[in-house]
Each structure stands twice: as structure tokens, then as C-alpha cells.
Amino acid sequence: MESVYTNRQYSNGREELSLPFDETITLGKEPSGVGGSGGSYTARGGQGGASLGVDLGAGEGFKPLGGGRFNEYIDGATTTPITKEVRAESDEKARGRREKVRDGMRHAWSGYKTYAFGMDEVKPLSKQGHNPWGGMGTTLVDSLDTLWLMGMKEEFWEGRDWVRDHLSHDHVGQVSVFETTIRSLGGLLAAFDWSGDQVFKEKALDLGERLAHAFESPSGIPYGQTVLNGHRSMNAGWTGGSSLLAEIGTIQVEFRYLAKITGREEFKTKADNVFKIMNKKRTSDGLYPIYINPTNGNFNNNKITFGAMGDSFYEYMLKCWLQGGKKEDYYREMYDAAMEGVHSKLVQKSTPSGLSYIADLNGGNLDHKMDHLVCFMGGSLALGAYTDPLGLDSPRAQRDLQLAKAVTYTCYQMYARQATGIAPEFVNFRSGSDMVAGHARFYILRPETVESLFILNQLTGDPVYREWGWEIFQAIEKYCRTDVAYASIPDVTSTRGRQDDRMESFFLAETMKYLYLLQDPDTEVDVLRKHVFNTEAHPTRMLSLVD
């Protein structure tokens, strides 16, 4: 039976409806990620040509260079000697580029401040504010640590004043626990961690107490929705009453940090309990179906994916272990078991090029597609390899690092092989033709590829990741920039300049932040020794470093 999801009715386990408001998505059988397998994306009333006649910033004169380049990186086995001279040359070039990225952030923030300050989002074409997240100033809160890390302190303190004087959760009804945790709670916690301003801690505690009602299920598995100005939680109807794997396993970094700074240990206990339940139900291959019964924690389907509705559950296995000082062994053991399952069940190579990708597994059958969301795995695998208890030189760590590099190259090719130089929502892999954009040709300003580029560059020092990221930034500047902000685009295979009237808050929280940090050799951020990023790119210190 065909279903149509419009506006914010659709949840893919990562973003709750990742589509502009004037778009409709038609799906077959079941929601399997925005533009899921067998689905179609229909742009209705999109405002076209908005990129023409606009100041293109760093995109001026940019022409995508095409795919098939840097083939020596295709299998992840290349080890480039990084001399002091190579690093110094790359750093010098990067310092100039980071200014261009900061200019882009200034451009978007100015548009938000002018047309939507204090509202959830700015519409980049119609120049209006709107509140798809309940009116919690989501873009403002989500952007605070980006402003801080880019040195935009005047804008940061303006945002702080709004949080202090106007942010309230008393009027907010039903929300996505996952989205509100990673965007709003995560944003407040990171702003506190970097600035030390008590306002952010106070607002985070208020929000955290309200969100924690979602844990009140018979099993302790949280519900996906809760009412912030009430005391009622539930799951979305389209899940059949199930909780989603990514949603139950992507709130721990935030609640554990909140527990640390408030002394409220119950936040950590409730969050950790989710993974303890899942650990007891660990499968033979370490991989988990995406639908979970909140009554007993049992699995309600047999689909396995590192894309929509599954992705960040695996990300937080590793990050919670790192956040806790590598002492909670069950997190690392779950992560290592899952990576074994990835290698044995999901890793595939395309023909004819031999691009590595991570497929979905549905009812025991491989679905040869890869969401843009899966591109976080390059950074996650690399971070897991560099922190492997067996050592970076161990066969396991080297295997994972090679896959990290190979998958990240594939994700780069998802951009480079498109006419615009921008990646679609997902690609299909077909025998003899490598990857095709298929039906989901839209780009909603997603960050996962540049996230992995940043992590791999910081860990390996290889300047190639900065080069790939710079190509992506220039393409975004050319095709997504409007005269007040940045817009999603409906078809990455077309250079006609059509844009959609939507800029998700994660573009400023994640995409712009990672693009900047990638080109910032002087950053204080240290993913190996000091900081843990939540899945919305909000970095906070590891718990042992927090006073």
C-alpha cells in the first residue's frame, strides 16, 4: 500500500521529515528513510533559479571537476607520507579557506537574525521565520557552539541573551525526543561547556527533566515522542507502536553530560540502561533491527541499516565509551561486535570501479543502496581504529581504518559524480554502473560526509580530505546559497538552479561547523583526547575533564 508523508509527519530516525514544507514524498510499503527504496520525491512549487543573480561567495566561478579522480584512495589502502612541509603547506592554505567558510556562516546567520531571530528556522527564499520544532529557537540554539568555535563571539552573546530572556519550554507540546535532545539539549550543553555560562546549564536542566519523561515505559526503552508541557509520551503511529533504534540509542551522550554537570545521576542511569538492555539482546553478528518494542525491548522487524533509523545507535556505542574514559567495557564490546557484523554482512564493492559501500539488510536480503546518512561511518570507523584497545597497528584497527577511508572516498564520489558536485539523499549500486542517484535526488544540506572528512583529516593529517571538503563547500556555495541564507535543492543532477525554501538547523550546527573545523588547523577541538561530538556536531569535553 502506498503512503504519502508530507510536512513533519515523516520520521527517518535521524531527522523528522527532512523535506521542505512544500514537498511531498511518496513511498511504497514502509517508511525506509526519506526517499526510501522504491520511493519517489516530487518537488511541488519549489522556487527555482534562486541561485542565479545571487552573490555566490566562494562558489563564484566554481565548476564541479567530476568523479573518478583520486583513484588511489578507492580501496582505503593508500598511506600518504605526511611530512612537516606537507602539513605546513596544507595548514596555510586551510587558514585562508576557513575564512571563506566563516563568511558563509556570517551570511546565513545574518539572514536568520534579520528574518527569523528566535524562531526555529528561516526560510531562505521567502525570507520568513517559521516554527516546525515548537518555537524553541532551534536554529539559534543549534548554532551557538558553531558561532563560538568560529570566533563569532558577538553573535554568540546575542544568542545567549535570547536564551536567557526568551527561551521557554512551557508552551511546547509534543516533540520528537531524539531531535529535541540532539539539537536543543545538545546545543545548550555544548554552549555551556565552551562558555561556562550558567544560563545554558539552567535551560538544559529544564529541558532534560521534561525529555526524561520519555523513559517511563515498561522496559525503560524510551518512547519517540513526549509532551514538553505535559507528562505524556508515545510513539508515532506509523511505527506501529515501536521505538526506533537510532532514536533510543542517540540520547546518551547528552543525558550523561547533563548528569555530570548537574549531579543528577538518574539522567545517566536511565540513558545507559537502554544500551544495557540492548546488550542483553545482542545478536550473533552484533547488528540490531530498527524497530524495538518499548514494552519488553524485543525486536519488531528484521531490517538492519546504518542509514535512516539505525545509524547513530552504533555511533553512540563508541562515543559513550570514549566519553566515559574508556571504562565502560560493554559499550566498546557492543561497538566491536557491530563492526564485525558490518564487515561480514554489509560491506560490498561496486562494479566496475570497486567502490566500497555499506548496504542495508532487509529480511536477510541485501539492499544495495547507501544513504548519505551512512557517510558518518568513515569518521566513526577511523575514530574506533585510533582508539582500539588492541592498538592502532592491530589487524582489526587497520581493517577498520582501511574501510573508513574507502567508504569516505565513496561518499566523496557521491558528490563528485553529480553534475552539481553535491550528493543526493541516497544512491543505489547497480552491477556494471557503480552508483546512481535514483529517485532521491534531493540534497537537504546534510553534514555526514564532511563530518568524516574532518575526523579523518584530524586523525591522519592527510590534506586530501581538506581538498575534497573544499570542493563540497564551493558546490554548496554555488547551488545552495540564496541572498539571505542557504537552501536545499531538489535535484543534484540538474544545474538549472532550482532551490527549495528550507534550511534545516543542522546546516549551521553541523555542515558549516565541520567544513570550518576541517580547514582550521588551530582549533582547540581534539576528537582523540578531549572532545566527544554528539550526532548533531555539538562537542563537549569527555566526562573526566569536566569539573
UniProtKB/TrEMBL annotation:
Enzyme Commission identifier(s): 3.2.1.-
GO cellular component labels: endoplasmic reticulum; Golgi membrane
Residue numbers binding Ca(2+): 535
Active site: 179 (proton donor), 311, 425 (proton donor), 448
Enzyme type, top EC level: hydrolase
GO MF terms, alphabetically ordered: calcium ion binding; mannosyl-oligosaccharide 1,2-alpha-mannosidase activity
Similarity field: Belongs to the glycosyl hydrolase 47 family.
Biological process terms in GO annotation: carbohydrate metabolic process
Cofactor(s), names only, from the UniProt record: Ca(2+)
Cystine pairs: 375-411
Name under which the protein is recorded: alpha-1,2-Mannosidase
